[in-house]
């Protein structure tokens, strides 16, 4: 056996110091810089072909419409664990929650009904007959009135939230498939897919006030309750039309096949689910510029924002999951992070780890400290090496 020549004590100490110092600098750098990056997405399993998603900000319950299973999965957002499965009609396609009452409403595509779910008992109360192929639902939380967009009969069914009775059907454009309500004004906005328009309906009279021409194949609509700005996702153009008053002021290019849209009422930022792109495009509501493209699951078809936690929930149609990630406001301040599921199926990072401005990471005092520590270690190591060789 060949004996190895032992290293000089000074050299051994030097190398040991170098290894420890470099590792320490890496730990310091990670601790001080990682919180400024967008947090990883948490993805958890739901039912088959999840389509609609909604969240109640008052109790943290998340509702996911599993279109193939004919039920709604209810998840506790505190731990991403399933609470219950509630049977609905055939082909649940969209879901909305009244935060004032906790009641959830689910449209059932194939049987033309609206399922009402008690938010306390998690039990289905009644199935209300609406129009053929209902594709979207929205609620006025002040009046409790529920609006259902019926795709194949070109109308919106107005339902009383207190009696669960149909009040009337209002004619719309061709193939209405998305709907939103401004909770401050009660105004209702309906995207007409084949008509390339968005109808503006009075919440007081249920009369259509104006039809606004938007992009091709408008597939989703959302409203900022604070500014009144309306955002329409155009599936065939890969754009979002920004509407101010009764006219489009600009179009914002987003991902492939935008299929759902939501506005964070706290920040004004707009989130767009790109169905064929597998991403969520984030638009700065103050200047209508694209901030981020967040990678989610396969076929994101719907999304919802919890304004209390600033977490974004995305249903992924093709892989039977729901993704959760912090909104732009919380990710830049690290005020919230999605809870890890007890049985997470995957963890993916955002497609960008830059600051909200979309450029280089934002400089912070923590980042400066980490840089100084790393530089000190590197310089000390070089000086020590030079002295050893002398």
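Q: What amino acid sequence fits the structure above?
A:
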């Amino acid at each position: 056996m060949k004996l190895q020549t032992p290293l000089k004590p000074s050299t051994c100490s030097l190398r040991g110091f170098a290894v420890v110092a470099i590792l320490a600098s890496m730990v310091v750098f990670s601790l001080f810089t990682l919180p400024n990056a967008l947090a990883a997405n948490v993805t958890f399993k739901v039912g088959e072909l999840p389509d609609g998603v909604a969240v109640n900000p008052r109790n943290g319950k998340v509702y996911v419409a599993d279109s193939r299973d004919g039920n709604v999965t209810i998840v506790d957002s505190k731990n991403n664990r399933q609470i219950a499965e509630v049977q609905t009609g055939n082909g649940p396609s969209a879901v909305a929650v009244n935060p004032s009452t906790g009641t959830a409403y689910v449209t059932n595509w194939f049987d033309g009904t609206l399922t009402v779910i008690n938010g306390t008992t998690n039990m289905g109360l009644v199935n209300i007959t609406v129009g053929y192929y209902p594709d979207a639902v929205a609620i006025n939380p002040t009046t409790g009135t529920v609006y259902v967009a019926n795709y194949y009969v070109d109308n919106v069914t107005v339902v009383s939230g207190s009696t669960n009775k149909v009040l009337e059907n209002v004619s719309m454009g061709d193939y209405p498939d998305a709907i939103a309500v401004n909770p401050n004004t009660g105004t209702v906005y309906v995207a007409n897919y084949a008509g390339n328009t968005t109808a503006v309906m009075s919440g007081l009279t249920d009369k259509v006030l104006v039809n606004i021409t938007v992009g091709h194949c408008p597939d989703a609509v959302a409203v900022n309750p604070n500014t009144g700005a309306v955002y329409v996702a155009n599936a065939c153009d890969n754009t979002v039309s920004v509407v101010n008053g009764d006219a489009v002021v600009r179009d914002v290019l987003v991902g492939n096949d935008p299929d759902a849209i939501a506005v964070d009422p706290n920040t004004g930022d707009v989130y767009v689910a790109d169905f064929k792109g597998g991403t969520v495009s984030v638009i700065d509501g103050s200047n209508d510029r694209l901030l981020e493209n967040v990678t989610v699951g396969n076929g994101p078809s719907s999304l919802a924002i919890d304004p209390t936690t600033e977490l974004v929930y995305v249903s992924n149609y093709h892989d039977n999951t729901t993704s959760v990630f912090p909104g732009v406001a919380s990710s830049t301040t690290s005020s919230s992070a999605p809870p890890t599921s007890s049985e997470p199926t995957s963890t993916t990072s955002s497609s960008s780890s830059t600051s909200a401005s979309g450029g280089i990471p934002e400089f912070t005092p923590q980042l400066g400290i980490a840089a100084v520590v790393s530089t000190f270690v590197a310089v000390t190591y070089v000086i020590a090496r030079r002295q050893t060789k002398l």
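Q: And what stands out in the fold?
A: The radius of gyration is 26 Å.
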